[in-house]
Amino acid sequence: MVLKALVTALVALAAYSGFIYLFQDDISRTGQTAAQRNVVKAEEYQYEFADQYDTLVVGSSMSERLVMDSLGAGCYNLAMAGLSAQKGLQLIRESNRWPRLIYVETNTLLIPTQPGRLLTDTSTPVERFLRQHLPVLRQKYQPVGVFKALLRDWKYGKSQFVLLESGWHVDSAFLEKAVASNLRNQQNPLPDSVLQQHVQTIDQLLRAFRQHGTQIVLFEMPVDPRLQRTAYTRSLSAAVYQHFVRQGYPFIKPTATDTYLTTDGIHMTHQSCLAYTHYLCDALRVQRHDPETTMPRR
Amino acid sequence: MRRWQVSILTAASLIFYAYNQADLLWLLLLSVSINIGSSYLVIYGQPAYRRFYAIWGVVANLSILLFFKYSPLLSHTFLSTNDGIGAWLVSLPLPIGISFFTFQGISLVVDTYRYRDLPAFRSLIAHSLLRHAQTVLFFKSFFPQLVSGPIVKAYAFLPQIHLKLWQDVRWDYCFRTLVTGYFLKMVVADNLKDHTVLMVYPYFEALSSLTLLTLLFGYSMQIFADFAGYSLIALGLAALFGYQLPQNFNFPYVSSSFADFWRRWHMSLSSFLREYLYIPLGGSRHGAFRTYLNLMLTMVLGGLWHGAAWSYAVWGLAHGLALAVERWLSDRHLLIPASSGGRVLKAVWVFVYITLAWLLFKLPEFSHVIAYLQAIGTNSHKPHDALVISFIALYSIPVLVYHAYYRLRERQLVAVKQWEFIPYGLMLFMIITNSGTSGTFIYFQF
């Protein structure tokens, strides 16, 4: 029985590998959950797209929603839900590639994330080698995810993005509860010891990129104005300003934050995200000509 | 080399434990030392003090568990946790597997005291203190069951400690157990985990009633797949070394009564609670009222064993209440008749009740549990998350098929022995290609 089962598994694996090999180009956006989408994104960057993009965005679920079409064709969004910009920077660093430009979201830059949240954190070099050469072992090609993607593309068309209805509308009762919950969670500032530890890590990463000619641009995503005044947010902003903005890293800070709508105090609606992406593009354009104009005034 | 089998396995088990929590290895060794001393003294100490040695052993075991596991809960409840002793108690680390290895220690001490006059059991407690120490150290630290069980009883495990030969290993059993275990854990539970993560306050309030019900159903499937999967992996790994650990799950979601459920769910814990708590409390020997009280008390303590939060005690109380009411109805012949339709109806009721009770596991704050139940009632107008519902349904199918296959096999309605390599081969294929993002076992926190 054992031998027969092993042979069955091998035959299934070979057949599925053949299928993936033949239809690789038709398979995209296979992640089933936020956690898997992160892994798929990381794998796609490492194994497929790293050489195609010279501009990268790193951050959390906040900047994951940026409208990439507006940011330009050569830009790849490596922002990941539930993780921080730090994770994205580490991922790029591990790939041993030096992009021309990295946009770094500052909202979560210094927030500690649990180790091992990304599959690439826990995999061994052997596993990475196998995934590189045997695509069938990647999360991107999980049979259930592939089935979902093919079904979606068949129903809606390949390039059609399906946006959740909840991302368009603001449920004000829910928004109030979410903001209240976040206000409770953000009552206390992040301890200095934690901040210092992360400042050091980020500083080393950013210096390494700069030394290799990569330009770094910091940007902040707008959140509900009530959440911008919490002790937690203020401690993060002050640390970013003190350790990075003052050191000469270009920084784009949102203006008129009360014009952007969020669904939960943190994540913007699709319309607001589109508006903010346009603002970001304009600020980047201005920043290229005169770096001082977008520096926040304190 | 053969004579070093147990020593090598013991050393490997300690390294395995220390790999994750080296700074708390001393606590495991302290717990082992207490059990070596008390069990040895029960047999070879002064006969007049045997009871004292046994009580000392149990109290010492429980003290370690109480101190490390429940100090934070007591501090949160009765002390200020901002500074002083309260803050220190809250900061105590929770040693991995403490609930499991403590219960095994209690089992050793109690079994030794109970069966002290049985020659067969006495022979398991070596006269040489060093040899006895080696045996107890292995019994408590054997790696497949060290961190999350199954809880192994001394009388079942000690007789197995002897030379193992290659030809004794049941490869077919190991393969089936490991493949099923890894499939349940890595493909079913780890994928469901990434969906049920949506059950967090206040985000679940934005979801529709149907989505919330599906998530709750998914969590019920996830917790089974996670723990039953882990237990099967433990059984398979132990069997690779020639040891048989007790079965921990027996298709619990087919249960048609709460008593039946607890004979099928986490069987090593429920049998431990029955043998070492419920029966010593008097069991059902002192009238109806005491029986109900004993049931409730056993389940509340069983609930608290799962975690140091009052919500776990309430979860235990909910199960104790269900068991007591069921017994009361049964005593008065008021239960639904045992026709096949009646059994299905009862099985559905038991499943719904148990699934609702899992909310106390997922959301340890009562207010969030109430908010979740309220949202189920009020959010019917919100748009459904079709993707989440579809994925949860899809990943729940293996658990449902697993239970259905058991029922069909029980009634001899399926005879597919010659083709059973196909599902095992496909499960292996899915483990390789469709595992979820890795996550710790839910029961590790206990």
Question: Would you mind describing this structure in some detail?
Answer:
The complex is a heterodimer of chains A (298) and B (446). Chain A has 298 residues and is α/β, with parallel strands linked by helices. Chain A has 13 helices and 5 strands. Chain A has a 5-stranded parallel beta sheet, sandwiched between helices. Chain B is an all-alpha fold and 446 residues long. In chain B, helix 2 packs antiparallel against helix 3. At the A-B interface, helix 1, helix 2, helix 8 and helix 9 of A face helix 10, helix 18 and helix 19 of B.
Present the secondary structure layout.
The complex is a heterodimer of chains A (298) and B (446).
Chain A: H1 2-23, H2 34-49, E1 55-58, H3 61-64, H4 68-71, E2 75-77, H5 85-94, E3 101-105, H6 119-122, H7 125-133, H8 143-156, H9 172-185, H10 192-211, E4 215-219, H11 225-228, H12 231-245, E5 251-252, H13 270-289
Parallel strand pairs in A: 1-2, 1-3, 3-4, 4-5
Chain B: H1 5-21, H2 25-44, H3 50-78, H4 84-90, H5 98-114, H6 119-122, H7 129-141, H8 143-146, H9 154-157, H10 171-196, H11 209-240, H12 258-264, H13 267-278, H14 287-306, H15 310-331, H16 340-362, H17 366-378, H18 386-410, H19 421-433
Helix pairs in contact in B: 1-7, 2-3, 2-5, 2-7, 3-4, 3-5, 5-7, 10-11, 10-18, 10-19, 11-16, 11-17, 11-18, 13-14, 14-15, 15-16
User: How much is the average pLDDT of chain B?
Assistant: 90
Q: Which residues of chain A form runs of ≥5 with pLDDT under 50? A: 293-298
Strand sequence of the main sheet of chain A, in spatial order? 2-1-3-4-5
Radius of gyration of chain B: 23 Å
User: Which geometry of chain A do the CA atoms define?
Assistant: globular
What is the CA-CA span between the terminal residues of chain A?
72 Å
Number of strands of chain B: 0
What Rg of chain A is obtained from the alpha carbons, in whole angstroms? Answer: 21 Å
Question: Counting H and I runs of at least 4 residues, what is the number of helices of chain A?
Answer: 13
* Structural class by secondary-structure content of chain A: alpha/beta
Q: How large a portion of the residues of chain B is in β-strands, by DSSP E? A: under 5%
Count of helical segments of chain B?
Answer: 19
Mean pLDDT over the residues of chain A: 84
Total number of β-strand segments of chain A? 5
Characterize the main sheet of chain A.
5 strands, parallel
